[in-house]
Specification:
Radius of gyration: 20 Å
Pfam family, one: MFS_1
Distance between the termini: 26 Å
Domain Major facilitator superfamily (MFS) profile: 16-417
Number of domains: 1
Organism: Hymenobacter glaciei
CATH superfamily: MFS general substrate transporter like domains
Oligomer: single chain
Structural class: mainly alpha
Low-confidence stretches: 1-9
Membrane topology: Multi-pass membrane protein
Helix content: over 70%
Subcellular location: Membrane
Length: 417
Amino acid sequence: MPAALPTPKNTVLTAAVIVAALGYFVDIYDLILFSIVRVGSLTSLGIKPGTPEMTNQGLFLINMQMGGMLLGGILWGILGDKKGRLSVLFGSILLYSLANIANGFVQTIDQYAWLRLIAGIGLAGELGAGITLVSESLPKEKRGYGTMIVATIGVSGAMLGYWVAEGSGFGWRNAYFVGGGLGLALLVLRVSVFESGMFQQVQAQAEVVRGNFFSLFSNPVRLGKYLRILLIGVPLWFVVGILVTLAPEFGKALGLTGEVTAGLAVFWCYFGLVFGDFLSGMLSQLWHSRNKALQLFLVFCATLVGVYLFGVKGASPTVFYGVCFVLGMSVGFWALFVTVAAEQFGTNIRATVATTAPNFARGAVVGLVPAFKYLSGALGGIIPGAAVLGGLTLLVAFWAVSTLPESYGKDLDYVEE
């Protein structure tokens, strides 16, 4: 392993930031691709559009992908602290790239499900490893700008996903091939990135235990911080995994004047995320506070969820997509959330936390989906069901942020006992 190079004090756009940003770009492309091609791909596999089976099979496949991310989050997080940030960054990209290429050949729902599980395992590693590497490589006063760049470039991968899957006429199978090919092409950039110096220092200390996932549960203070971090990320996946992915179903329930597609809803949501991630990262730097920026965005998100569910009844699809754009802006705190996760813990378990936290938050969809189904049935429709579930997730997340120690400018060169 080559020695870590010092980071120039006057730059943010380092090789680590560029590679992490491009890796996250491909990660997001692949992560949301199923939401875009759900109806088209399942229709070609024999599921009739507009039927309960279409919704149920779609939710099943999302759960398989998110379940894989839960497993992968633990796997890659531990490996990131034991073997290094770079090994995870590129190992995860290789796995999900191959899985997505294979996904383009599926002929049955079962094949689709297993490959979404494998892809989910691969997708679990890139963001946490990338954010950890960037956070440890940049000066503490500038690392927020680095992770802001990673997020802003990364989430725009969703727009490429929409264009390839629907705008270009390539078809859903070719969209998976393109995603896999982009990931494999990204691997050649590995030669320009050096391992984190903080990790190498800890790696040289044989007495330091690295990547012990269970150490998060052995100390009440660590456990409390970890659980609160997980709760902060859940609202974003309530918005993306339920409100936006099921946009056609919500469009019908809201009595829109025309039909809406999940692909366009995802496109506009992630277009908004580009601006939201930039704004949240910038505010956290200007205010010298991660927590204040997160609190503002959670209030913003609660407002837009209310508009989405109750403010566009009978509106046109154009108005609905506009709301999806602003709703995406309101949840544009994803990389800030992962940055906070990395900043809260020592070098010997930092990758474990920064990788498991976003994937457990993403994996919350596995629990949100049955909760959404239950509440929708009990309350007489998907609108009140989503309102109650969204309100609960946002309230809990706001509490979690408000009780978490501030981490802006924190020195990260330490280990957990």
